[in-house]
Amino acid sequence: MRAALLDKNLQLQMIDTDPPTIQADDQLLIRVKAVGICGSEVHAMHGTHPTRIAPVILGHEVAGDVVAVGAGVTAFKPGDRVVIDPQWTCGECEYCRAGEINFCPTKKVLGTPKWPGGFGQLVVAPQRSVFALPDNLTYEQGAMLEPLSVDVHVAHKARLQPGESVVILGTGSIGGLLSGVCRAMGAGPIITADLHQHCLDAARERLGATHDFLLPNANFAARVKEITGGGADVIFVAGDEEKLVNLAIEIAGNKGRIVIVALLREAPLQINAYDVIAKELEIIGTTMVNHQDVRNAISLAETGQVDVLGIVTHRLPIEQVQRGMELVDTKADGAIKVVLSFDNGG
After folding, report:
1. Is the pTM of this model over 0.85?
2. What are the backbone angles phi and psi of residue 120, rounded to the nearest 5°?
3. Is residue 144 part of a domain?
4. Which of 36, 150, 216, 336 has a CA positioned 20 to 30 A from the CA of residue 307?
């Protein structure tokens, strides 16, 4: 099969490699039709991701067609359109039994050396990680269900309530879709901030942000406090800049919640602890998703509550993966989300 390999020199190259095969009764073989490029893949390209380590076939935002199924697969058949939750879990540990699959200690993650991803033409996945793609969604929309699931999980971790004020620091693909999730949950105002105006435009025009600010902006903190009546209820740090955490602390209201979404692996955090104490703030971590998040994300997209294509700016064939990665990395040419395909099917 054809695949884009991130090699040991952190360069992407097209290769021909043996396709994966079904090894157990509960597995499916899936032909990739569309795969998104995530910021975590950009981290891998820079050698800064903890698990996406070269040489590796990346790609975990996958939609495609079932090609074959194992003898024990009952929910799918060849020809079905599907999406993949990129977590291959044990299904037996205390976390899996509780539905908290993101904490499974032995799970494999799609797009890592242990589970080659959707930058390859074919992917094998266990039945429990596969979900039907609704008929009214394209493959491209299907590939966006994975980042949307992340945002559903993030909003759940924040305990977001209708009417609460929100600030999203960083409106790339995750931050942009998060605007849509917050709107669907009845939050407001929804304030976005980013270094790139085109990212802010997408969040406001298609995904429900009510206010946007191009950073740096010396008046940003004061304006947030003015708009929210003293400080935001919930702040999501979705931009990969350590200094945004202290900005979040500054603009949070009393008893505010700060959710760290970005990886923030470039340097140790140094925070203004007194403000956290004085305002009784919560700083919340979040990692991946559970299957209820996936189901909720599918519903939001299927019913049109979140326009998942609002972040998609570029559509490229897999052979242009290097350019796609560079676009996501630099945000050049108005890029937010790049979707790759192995053919012209939508």
Report:
1. yes
2. -105, 155
3. no
4. 216
